[in-house]
Design a protein that fits this description.
This protein has 428 residues and is an all-alpha fold. Helix content is 77%, strand content 0%. The radius of gyration is 21 Å and the shape is globular.
Length: 428
């Protein structure tokens, strides 16, 4: 059973609707059984070993912190501050949507948390203001994927844990690309606003701006605490996730008092379910990655790519196109764990910095959250907005373009990713 047959089995199981984690496990089990000389004990050993990683402990804490923020009034305060800050610019709440997502991304680290929590607030506000549903849902979907680029980032934790790369470096390396994504979306919103004459808020007074800023100040300190603690060496990225969760609880229970102990128990249960979904994919992908390594997928893929071109940018273009394709049908976590060992030898061969490649890979797979048939963000917003999935996918397509432009820029100019990590973390 070779690589082609393995991939065919995997795609076949996905096509019949089997969950991704079980597709990976079942494909691996079929390979082990047919191979004959691999002990079945390996199946359980690899599944158990995959999630056994200290950095991965950050995942449940960031998920829980995002859930708490969505329940304790923090998302509303962030949205209100963004509205006062940029609501008067042509495009009004479209710009507010983007800025709110940038601010919230410094707390949750997950696109689904942004789409499901902040997205609910954004869609209601834009509908009440008279924005059409197509624009409202499209900009909400597109802005939500900024979350995993700007620190903290759950995909960055998974990439760093799998590839052995500095998670702090990945966190800070996403700052400039994330801001560029927001800027590119703002340009598109501005163009739409001029064409459709969308409403906008009156210019705020200084007092109103100061009030909104003071209301949102404590939540906005979250990324400062996380990045500052990692940078100064006070705590690890995993510990920073726990601190973010505790900080969110303090804000919700003691400062804003919009969170109850009963809410906490419910959020713990929900976060545990979301964590289990992510970790079981990590387990299945770890086993499947071992099978690909045994079949020497990395050297074979490298030989194919180098047979087409030896130009560094040509190779990166091929990798980008491949990752964009993979993102359309595979969930980001499983795609990363499977493909990181495959691409690591190739990027070393062409002298691409692993932090640069990590941010590039994460952005590629986040774009996949906006593309059918998997498109997790599209499904979440379909539930939140009541619009059909197919319609959301269609109207969101044009809003993927700004992210592709940023992807091209960070591919061609690595310093957009590496400048801050080199300055703050001394990454060479």
């Amino acid at each position: 059973m070779g690589i082609a047959e393995i991939l065919l089995v995997l795609l076949g199981l996905m096509a019949i609707g089997m969950p991704v984690a079980f597709c990976l496990m079942m494909t691996s089990l079929i390979y082990i059984v047919l191979h004959g000389r691999i002990p079945l004990l390996l199946f359980t050993q690899r599944i158990a070993a995959g999630p056994d990683s200290f950095p991965l402990l950050a995942v449940p804490f960031f998920i829980f912190a995002g859930q708490v923020m969505n329940t304790s009034g923090i998302t509303r305060r962030i949205f209100d501050f963004a509205k006062v800050l940029v609501g008067h610019i042509p495009g009004g709440l479209g710009h507010v949507n983007v800025v709110a997502s940038i601010i919230f991304s410094g707390m949750s680290g997950a696109a689904v948390a942004d789409a499901g929590g902040l997205g609910l607030v954004e869609i209601k506000a834009m509908r009440d203001a008279g924005y059409d549903d197509d624009f409202t849902v499209a900009i909400t979907a597109s802005s939500s994927i900024i979350g995993p680029i700007i620190p903290p980032s759950i995909p960055a934790v998974i990439y760093g844990a799998t590839a052995g790369v500095s998670i702090g470096g990945l966190f800070i390396g996403g700052v400039i690309p994330g801001l560029l994504m927001g800027l590119a979306l703002a340009v598109l919103v501005y163009v739409y606003a001029l064409r459709k004459d969308y409403p906008r808020s009156p210019r705020p007074t200084f007092r109103k701006l100061l009030k909104a800023f003071s209301d949102a100040l404590l939540p906005m300190l979250t990324p400062v605490i996380i990045i500052g603690g990692i940078w100064t060496g006070k705590f690890t990225p995993t510990e920073s996730a726990a601190i973010a969760a505790v900080y969110a609880i303090i804000l919700g229970l003691m400062v804003y008092r919009e969170l109850t102990v009963r809410d906490l128990w419910r959020l713990l249960v929900e976060s545990a379910g979301m964590t289990a979904n992510a970790i079981i994919i990590v387990a299945g992908a770890s086993l499947f990655g071992y099978i690909l390594a045994r079949e020497q997928a990395a050297p074979k893929l490298a030989a194919i790519i180098l047979g087409v071109t030896k130009n560094r940018y040509g190779i990166l273009l091929m990798i980008n196109l491949f990752l964009l394709f993979v993102g359309t049908f595979m969930e980001p976590v499983s795609a990363m764990i499977i493909l990181i060992p495959v691409f690591t030898p190739i990027i070393k061969m062409i002298n691409v910095h692993p932090v640069h490649f990590g941010v590039m890979m994460i952005l590629n797979l986040m774009i996949g959250l906006l593309t059918p048939p998997v498109g997790q963000v599209l499904y979440i917003l379909s539930t939140v907005s009541g619009m059909p999935f197919e319609r959301i996918a269609r109207v969101t397509a044009i809003f993927i373009l700004p992210h592709v432009v940023v992807l091209v820029l960070i591919t061609l100019f690595p310093e957009l990713v590496l400048f801050l990590p080199r300055v703050l973390f001394g990454i060479v």
